[in-house]
Write a structure and sequence with these properties.
Blueprint (H helix, E strand, L loop, with lengths): L1 H4 L2 H17 L12 E5 L2 E11 H4 L6 H18 L3 E11 L5 H17 L4 E8 L4 E11 L14 E5 L4 H9 L6 H9 L5 H10 L2 E6 L4 H12 L2 E5 L14 H10 L6 E5 L4 H10 L8 E8 L5 E4 L2 E4 L15
The structure holds magnesium ion.
Length: 333
């Protein structure tokens, strides 16, 4: 059978996840397919997530060990944020060749420590093993009230779609890194120092008006496609309302649009809010002063049918399920 010889490069990351989910799925109400898994803990959930970072796919040349350490921690905390949870702790399993400089290890740990401190938690432990290539497998834990956990499902037709921060920052940085004459330090920081939206996720959870949430690790189009695959709803994004990273304006419009919609790596939160509560949510958000950039933008609405679309000045076009995907030969689906 063809299935027996299929490679991961044929089915991509999403196909690989389907293979795993078919084996693991016991009808868990929360977990498979969401940003975090959950364990019952009295009136709360203990939420857990894991994310691995390796040299081949995540670490551009010139990245410093502290940047890599921050990134490996932040991508995990971003999933804790997406669940609306308060972080509790972090563990990291480090694989690296014996030839690795001790200074690299020290720098990596300093980056991890800086990120966990920023979010009020500590590294609880981990593992260190010899391997052919550097990889960092992080696991983060958090806690959220059972009735206030945020999932990728839960949106209803009529809900309003919002996004934190701006979009296209990481894509813009990756473009700069391809240009040998561009300054790399700032671009590497843009790419490798995403700021997990922990306070925003907790604000969403506390509001009681946010019906679903996820972090945009794979880009806006791919993220909304993953939500739509679970809810069968239509996510309709208004192009003019998207909070574009200012650096995109210096790029050709077609490229800027592609980075805005389909590049990913920004680790902002996308959420749906009950229409009757959106004004209150926006007002309260403006009153809170989280330590990071403070911006929440309405970008569209949820409808019962119609697929995911981008509403532009000239009409309506499909919002594609396109973005970064591991195991694909090009890195993109
Ligand atoms: Mg996620």
């Amino acid at each position: 059978m063809a299935d027996d010889v299929a490679k991961l490069s044929d089915i991509g990351e999403r196909g690989a996840i389907e293979v795993l989910a078919r084996i693991y799925d016991r009808g868990q109400p929360i977990g498979l397919g969401h940003d975090c898994g959950a364990v019952e803990w009295g009136d709360d959930y203990l939420v857990v997530t894991t994310d691995v970072v390796n040299a081949k796919t995540h670490i551009p040349p010139g990245a410093t060990p502290p940047q890599i350490g921050w990134y490996a921690t932040a991508v995990n905390l971003s999933d804790i944020a997406a669940a609306g949870a308060r972080p509790l702790g972090f563990v990291a399993a480090l694989s690296m060749p014996a030839s690795t400089d001790v200074e690299f290890l020290r720098g990596l740990a300093l980056g991890i420590e800086e990120c966990v401190r920023e979010f009020g938690i500590a590294v609880l432990g981990g593992d260190t093993k010899e391997a052919d290539a550097i990889s960092i497998a992080g696991t983060a834990f958090g806690r959220v009230r059972k009735d206030r956990i945020l999932l990728r499902t839960g949106a209803r037709p009529g809900d309003v779609i919002v996004v934190t921060g701006d979009l296209g920052r990481a894509g813009h940085a990756m473009r700069l890194l391809q240009d040998p004459s561009a300054a790399r330090t700032e671009a590497l920081n843009q790419l490798l120092r995403p700021y997990p939206r922990i306070s925003d996720g907790m604000f969403f959870s506390d509001s009681g008006a946010v019906t679903s949430c996820m972090d945009i690790s794979d880009g806006l189009g791919a993220s909304l496609a993953q939500m739509a695959a679970m809810t069968r709803l239509s996510y309709q994004v208004d192009e003019a309302s998207l909070p574009k990273y200012r650096g995109l304006s210096s790029l050709p419009p077609g490229i800027a649009k592609d980075l805005l919609l389909y590049y990913g790596g920004d680790y902002e939160l996308i959420a749906t809010v009950r229409a009757d509560a959106i004004e209150t949510v926006l007002e309260r958000y403006a009153q809170t002063k989280p330590p990071e950039r403070n911006r929440l933008t309405v970008i569209g609405k949820v409808a019962a049918t119609g697929g995911n679309v981008l509403v532009t000045k000239s009409g309506v076009e499909p919002l594609l399920n396109k973005g970064w995907e591991h195991f694909r030969p090009s890195g993109f689906r």
